[in-house]
Amino acid sequence: MAIWYKLGCTLEYFVQTPTVFIFNIEVARLQRHQGLVERLTITPDIELNRHTAPDINNRYFSVHAPAGPLTVKYEAEVSLEVLRADPNTVPETPVERLPLDIMPFLLPSRFVPSDRLAAFARREFGYLAPGFNRITAICNWLYDNIDYQRGASNEQTTADESLILRAGVCRDFAHLGIAFCRALEIPARFVSCYAYGLNPSDFHAVFEAYLDGRWWLFDGTRQANLDGLVRIGVGRDAAEIAFCSPFGGNVQYGDVTVSMGRSDGSPELLGRTTDAISTEEPAPNAGAA
Amino acid sequence: MAIWYKLGCTLEYFVQTPTVFIFNIEVARLQRHQGLVERLTITPDIELNRHTAPDINNRYFSVHAPAGPLTVKYEAEVSLEVLRADPNTVPETPVERLPLDIMPFLLPSRFVPSDRLAAFARREFGYLAPGFNRITAICNWLYDNIDYQRGASNEQTTADESLILRAGVCRDFAHLGIAFCRALEIPARFVSCYAYGLNPSDFHAVFEAYLDGRWWLFDGTRQANLDGLVRIGVGRDAAEIAFCSPFGGNVQYGDVTVSMGRSDGSPELLGRTTDAISTEEPAPNAGAA
Amino acid sequence: MAIWYKLGCTLEYFVQTPTVFIFNIEVARLQRHQGLVERLTITPDIELNRHTAPDINNRYFSVHAPAGPLTVKYEAEVSLEVLRADPNTVPETPVERLPLDIMPFLLPSRFVPSDRLAAFARREFGYLAPGFNRITAICNWLYDNIDYQRGASNEQTTADESLILRAGVCRDFAHLGIAFCRALEIPARFVSCYAYGLNPSDFHAVFEAYLDGRWWLFDGTRQANLDGLVRIGVGRDAAEIAFCSPFGGNVQYGDVTVSMGRSDGSPELLGRTTDAISTEEPAPNAGAA
Amino acid sequence: MAIWYKLGCTLEYFVQTPTVFIFNIEVARLQRHQGLVERLTITPDIELNRHTAPDINNRYFSVHAPAGPLTVKYEAEVSLEVLRADPNTVPETPVERLPLDIMPFLLPSRFVPSDRLAAFARREFGYLAPGFNRITAICNWLYDNIDYQRGASNEQTTADESLILRAGVCRDFAHLGIAFCRALEIPARFVSCYAYGLNPSDFHAVFEAYLDGRWWLFDGTRQANLDGLVRIGVGRDAAEIAFCSPFGGNVQYGDVTVSMGRSDGSPELLGRTTDAISTEEPAPNAGAA
């Protein structure tokens, strides 16, 4: 059963010298995001350029903002069709059956040095039976061993540092979960999203692992409902899908407000799903390496 | 004037338990690589899967090798059409005019933490006039400040570590050059290639920077002729275009032999070009952000 | 009951250009090392300089070796008086009662960045009741979580890296144990020693923690008997008590052989002690900060 | 000619739970610090414990502060006898003639991983003629290559990171200078001091290198007069001589004010000395390894 959500964000900046901004805040155009209606308002009213990344469908737009205040406001309404499965029925895909085009999500990346964490991951999770529940075990480990703590990390914090710090925010939980998956030869990628039930409301970051021919959502923070996530972008790690990347100028950061609620105004569901939640129908080439 | 080259490699392994190998050793199918004739021989004769990365045209193939010896032999002949320009006529592309689809090459990656090197790059190269010659200055700096030294680095060495070690091999020179470019907001990417005149013969790594609407070749090592490079792959850094990536098994590495010579058998040219060498015709969307 | 041991080592080098060597291989002159008889033979017969570090009693000697082979042979016989206690009776010393002269052993050092590991240590061990058994819990954690594996680390490996690598040798176990102690505000230091029962025979590294007014021995590797350790040196970490430090020349390293057995030739005791083993009588100023 | 200085500091804290503080703010008792008159006032009036480190003469005191405000005020007057020499007459001490008791100042330490910086130091300074002027060249390099910039570093920044960041404060300049010296096998140590002419007034950090049988002062920041430094402490690096180290409690940091002026009220001298400034008479064992 699809549920309708209203969501959006307002981002404020004070541009000191003309600056190019690349934004990635719009709801991705996916089969599971149906009936998307949206409005983007940029003040001042400047020209924007658009680009949608092939395959992964991230929607970027850029503006060349003149000096002065800049406000970017995004509002959307979307029906979220959740693809569910019984976790016990989802096996890992043997590496020889992985499609070659998802190989990049097995590789180490800027904030996910999975090559450095290989011994740790094998030592901690290598003995577990392959399958969806092994990734659940990784998420439980993250929840039990890493403190969710604002200010414990910064925008340069890597997954191996989070392991030492034993603390971080959603970005760090996602990076570490991805690192463990890749170290175990399970493709994994970073997901930025609007999250229903996140408190306080903000952009959220979770991760996806590739199992049984498609991508499944995981969240070691337990901060939001897996069946209430509306995807913005996916990428190797946070470097690829910052919601705002400024280039070539000087900028003062102002307020960021993010909201998400049900369109019918009904309150948040109390219970969290224990279903496996997939973000995509199986790709046609799944299972055929 | 196009010149014909003969090139190839032979890679030997002893597979201890069945292993998936992904190889990236074949000449990329580019406009500048004309008349490509090639032969790939895998012993034992096992099935292979192929994937060509969209946009960047890297050609990957994978095999699921059984236990025992594995030999991969690649032979090719190709005519290399070199695209030349006068370095003084190649400006940098202002960040507001960069196409959004090359944004990934501005971002930090596993071995190129350009975010960490931003202050260093601006301090050392920020005052130079923008343009092709600024990247040449970066290459000169690399040549003057980093020792080309086998064994000084390993497969986990990052660009910031190379800066401390003051030594490395072609991979490290490329990573550091890319890091400086990205820190200066110039898109840059890693290139693996066959290199005419490299001594001893081996795979080579150089980098490309995006200037004036297309990609140009740079090599801080001065080990090979820029106008004798035949591209295998491009990527964010070495993580993406290893010539061989084994997964899921145990492998002993044997010999790697690489060769490249002129088809007509004529000896290496003595002089090195001082032209700017581009690897691509300008993209249709170049200059339109 | 004191037991007599015979021990020693032979170190071989080939000196390529004249080199200053500082050695720290002789048995420390401590109250618990009684009846020490020893012989040091240097070939060729060159002059040596001696220095004993105040307070900690490490015995250093240096030689300025000419080009050619160098052999250093040390033989000793010593009666080891072991100071035992019931672990349950040994409390931690509250920080306000620590003598100021052991403050250096609370500080981070080259291979023990305890400041970086503070959150990890508090998260993992902070909830345990203070006392000797908390340090035993740290050693058990090391034994359970870190693989003893030659070649997993090198001479630049730090305690935080060992935590990521999940593997190391005695030096790394000691560094990590020290890091956790210091992070919990328990003074701790590195100990190099001859170890009875170590197999294969080699120099060994363990650590000491300061509890209840004196230093106690701990070993997370479980490789040797705590009541059969003859101390060579103590220091902040391995940087301070390398058994051999060459300066100012070029040296090829040859064989290192180390031996330790009981003087009466009786075989190794099978059982390991569960007593708390201290290396020193309480200092006169203990307990008076 | 000795000059009289008045100096001091006031340190304010709010202690949330009882905390042990170790302070190192008092003028060291050295031959060059003559006629020292001083007053230490702690509010509330709590008992303090004292310890002077052997050899290096650092004066530490500790207090066990109850919850509530804590103020530590130190006032002193001292006559500074400056020991000068002509830089061109000060050779390096060959490593074979270094006294063994200064060996610790050749070793890597927490914030000075000189082992990691060996290649860099040799590459940049190895070709220079040994002697005082080589250390001056290191200081000039620091001044030319590192930006003095508050906030660029933090209390965990190491010398190799400063090299990447290309920015830091006095502590970082000192760490990097020490690292280069040690990497060149020149003993070097960290110095905390009151500095005449520092603007704004604050604690200062410089470094000492051991040349020709004694210690000489160096400062890559050029922030203060070398002949107006009154030493507080020396150590391997900043880890050892923090002016305030709290243990075992929770503390809010308040204001730190530091002052230093001439006793006769005369204004700061305009010119900076170009003399070599030593902090100690030659040790009796200098030159005899």
UniProtKB/TrEMBL annotation, chains A, B, C, D:
Gene3D superfamilies: 2.60.40.2250, 3.10.620.30. Residues 264-289 are annotated as: Disordered. It holds the Pfam family Transglut_core. SMART domains: TGc. InterPro entries: Bact_transglu_N_2, Papain-like_cys_pep_sf, Transglutaminase-like. Residues 162-222 form the Transglutaminase-like domain. This is Transglutaminase. It comes from Asticcacaulis endophyticus.
